[in-house]
Amino acid sequence: MPHRKILTPLTWPVLSFAVAILLGSLALRWPGFWEEGHTVSWLDALFLSTSAVCVTGLSPLDIGTTFNAGGLGVILALIQLGGLGITTYTSLIFVLWRNRVPFTDRLAVSQALLNNHDFDLRAFLRHAAGLVLGVELIVAIILHIHDPVAFGPFSALFHAVSAFCNAGFSLFPDNLISFKGDAVVNAVIGISIVLGGIGFVVLRELIHVVVQRLRGRPARLSRYSRLVIRTSLWLIFGGGALIWLVEFQRGGAVHPGGTGLTLIISSLFQSVSARTAGFNSVDLSHLADASLLILTGLMFVGGSPGSCAGGIKTTTFRVLLGYMISQIRGGRQIVLGQRAVAPDSIARALNLFFFTSLTICISVLLLSVTENGITAWGEQTATPLLEILFETVSALGTVGLSAGLTPHLTPPGKVIIILNMFIGRVGLITLLAALQSLRSSRNYEYPSVYVPIG
Length: 454
What we know:
Blueprint (H helix, E strand, L loop, with lengths): L2 H4 L5 H17 L13 H12 L9 H4 L2 H16 L1 H13 L4 H12 L6 H26 L6 H12 L18 H15 L2 H15 L8 H26 L12 H13 L15 H13 L12 H16 L5 E2 L2 E2 L2 H28 L14 H12 L14 H16 L1 H10 L17
Antiparallel strand pairs: 1-2
C-alpha cells in the first residue's frame, strides 16, 4: 500500500493520538518520574498515557503519590495536548512557524473538530489556544485564592487544566470528596467542565455575543449554539434532579452525597461531571444503582461536538430524540429550531448510536469474562454487571468516573478499557472513516431487494 495513502486527512488524527500515547507511555515508564518506592509497569504506563491523552481520567494508580513533580508534569502536558487535540497543536505549529497550513491539515482539523470545511483555521486555532489557556489560568487563580493550602500553584493549575479539558484527574487520593460541600470549588470546577464541554465554536460565539451586548450592540447566538446550550442545560439540571431525588428517597441509608444543601451541590456536580469530566465529589460505589444508571446515561450522551468531551454528543442525542418523536407522531421530518434536520445528519446519528451501543455490548461481554475469574488472569470473584457497564461507558465516553473497578482490572481488562478510551477520543465515525479511506472504492453496485422488517 502506498505510504501517501496511509497518511490521509482521515487517518492523521488517529495516528497522531496513537503516537502521542506511545510517547507518553515511554515518558511515564522512566524511573526518574516516580516517587521513591513506587514502580509503574508498562501496561499501567500505557493505561495512564491513554487516559491522559484521551482526557478520560481513569487510573489504576494514585498518581498523586506514585509520581513526582516531573511525572505529574508529563501527565499535565498529555492532558493539555489531548484537550486541544493533536491535530490542533500540529496545525498551530504550522501557522506559527510556516505562516500557512497545508490543505490536508486544514481538512483534518475541520473534520475532527467541526465537521465543516469552510472556516478560517488560522483564526480558529489562535482563538482556541488563547481561550483554553485563558480560562484555565482564571480557574487556577480562583482555586488558589480560595484554598491556597489544598490548591497550591501547581495543584490549582493541574486541576484547572484537568477540569477544562474534561480529564477528571485529581492529585487528591479521594478525588474531590473532601470538597463535597465546598460550593466555590464545586461551582468553579463545574463551570470549567461545562465550558470545556460545549465546544470551542459555541464558547467563542457565546463570548462574542456577551461582549457585543455589553457594548450595546445587538447580537444573538446561532441556532446551533442555542441547540447545544439548551440541550446541555436540560441534561445537567435534569440529571442532577434525578440523582438528588433517588439519593434523597433512600430511607435509612447513609447518603454518600450528604444531606440538605450538600446533597443538592453534590448531585448537580456529579451530573455535570458525568458529561465526560470524571471528577467525583462522592464515593460512587456507595450510590444507589438507579443513580449509577442515570450517570451511565449522561456519560453515554457526553458533551458537544468540537469540544474536549466524548460520548455520542448532545447534538446526536437531540437528533435521536427528535427522530423518535417524529416516528411516534408519524412525521416525515425532524424539526429542530424551526429547521428540518438533513437526512445525512440523521443517518450519521443513527450509525453513531448503533456502533457505540455495539461497542459497549462487546466490551461488557469481554470484561464479564476477564473480570469474573473465567480466564486464568482473573480472580474467582463476582464483579457486578452494573459496575462493568459503568466502567465501559465511562471509558468509551472518555469520562473517567469509576465505581471502584479500575484499580482491580486484570491485564486483559486494562487492554479492553485502553481500546475503549482510544476509540472514544478519536471518535467511532472518524475511526470508521479512516478505515474506509484505506480500502479501494467499489465501482459497481448490487441490485436492491426489499426485506420484510418487524
